Task: inverse folding
């Protein structure tokens, strides 16, 4: 009797079949990958250049952006700062590079506006124009509480044009904006975006106040952009690029600019007197004491701790909090300025800073259970 044939091929025959199939698949894959190269090798060689495809006209918004940059570029400057350092052993003084930033031409007399933090702590500043000319700058004045500084350069001929001035009080969220500056030292860079939010606040450089009404934008703003102009679609100045919100220090789509309405209030005063005198009402207050009293009484506002004799506050009848024989004697708490809430000393400073010395404002006060309004004429601060 003959044995039955095996139901499966012998192991050696099965292995050979698998090997042959795998080899065939590998050869096919190699041929498939090499096919474009074989086609190029077999095709007739030619040195004829590729035909350029006509582009056609630029889009209207592209032409507008190009025109805006070309018109505005000459008004933007590159600022480099240095600090004088003395060698303690040799007594030699060296100029050490400190940082770079941006700025823009303010008028026809050589004034340049930038951020205060761009030049803070520097001993020297050099302003480079778009045409390559360099000028040693002198500091005219600064306002750390607004992060604004004014420099002056001696441009004798071919003066660059000042940046056209716009307004910021009528800006809308979603409006296009354009930032020109020198991020990371890459000179005259244009970035675009929109207004993301309005009326933001950030701590000022002096650490004692806030910069109010800031413009928030998603236009890329990086280190070196500080002090450069933020422009609207008409090429008008609407703000000074001042800060970014980013843990890494690079643009994360959240940048801030000091509004041009604030610039228009501060810069002429810096040019005229060298410093910005903030309007005040003539009271004394302290933020730490203010927080303690607010926590104790449960009432937010600015607690008047002192009324300067002969001041506008004294003339309006404001009374200060004091400690008497019976304990704490309540005085006035400022809770509103011109209908806007005040909950801290920085709020009060920001609200009053919207006005000028000589303006009269309405304060809403709370004394005990009584609420009243008084009119106070703002006076120059010290």
Result:
């Amino acid at each position: 009797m003959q044995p039955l044939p095996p139901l499966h091929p012998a192991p050696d025959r099965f292995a050979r079949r698998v090997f042959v199939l795998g080899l065939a698949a590998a050869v096919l894959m190699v041929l498939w990958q090499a096919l474009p190269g074989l086609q190029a090798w077999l095709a007739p060689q030619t040195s004829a250049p590729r035909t350029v495809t006509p582009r056609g006209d630029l889009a209207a918004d592209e032409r507008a952006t190009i025109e805006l940059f070309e018109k505005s570029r000459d008004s933007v400057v590159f600022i480099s700062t240095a600090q004088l350092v003395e060698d303690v052993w040799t007594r030699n003084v060296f100029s050490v590079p400190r940082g770079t930033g941006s700025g823009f031409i303010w008028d026809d007399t050589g004034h340049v506006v930038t951020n205060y933090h761009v030049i803070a702590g520097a001993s020297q500043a050099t302003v480079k124009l778009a045409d390559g000319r360099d000028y040693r700058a002198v500091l005219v004045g600064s306002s750390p509480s607004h992060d604004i500084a004014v420099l002056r350069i001696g441009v004798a001929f071919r003066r660059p044009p000042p940046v056209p001035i716009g307004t910021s009080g009528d800006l809308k969220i979603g409006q296009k904006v354009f930032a020109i500056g020198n991020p990371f030292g890459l000179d005259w860079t244009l970035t675009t975006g929109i207004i993301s939010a309005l009326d933001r606040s950030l701590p000022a450089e002096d650490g004692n106040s806030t910069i109010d009404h800031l413009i928030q934008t998603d236009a890329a703003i990086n280190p070196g952009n500080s002090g450069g102009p933020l422009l609207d679609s008409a090429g008008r100045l609407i703000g000074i690029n001042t800060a970014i919100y980013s843990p890494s220090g690079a643009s994360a789509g959240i940048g801030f600019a000091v509004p041009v309405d604030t610039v228009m209030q501060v810069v002429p005063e810096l040019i005229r007197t060298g410093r910005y005198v903030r309007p005040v009402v003539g009271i004394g207050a302290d933020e730490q004491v203010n927080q303690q009293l607010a926590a104790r009484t449960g009432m937010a506002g600015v607690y008047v701790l002192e009324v300067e004799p002969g001041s506008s506050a004294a003339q309006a009848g404001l009374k200060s909090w004091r400690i008497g024989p019976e304990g704490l004697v309540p005085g006035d708490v400022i809770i509103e300025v011109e209908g806007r809430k005040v909950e801290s000393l920085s709020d009060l400073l920001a609200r009053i800073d919207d006005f000028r010395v000589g303006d009269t404002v309405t304060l809403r006060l709370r004394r005990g259970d009584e609420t009243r309004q008084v009119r106070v004429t703002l006076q120059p601060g010290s």
Summary: The longest strand covers residues 189-203. Residues 11-42 form the longest helix (32 residues).
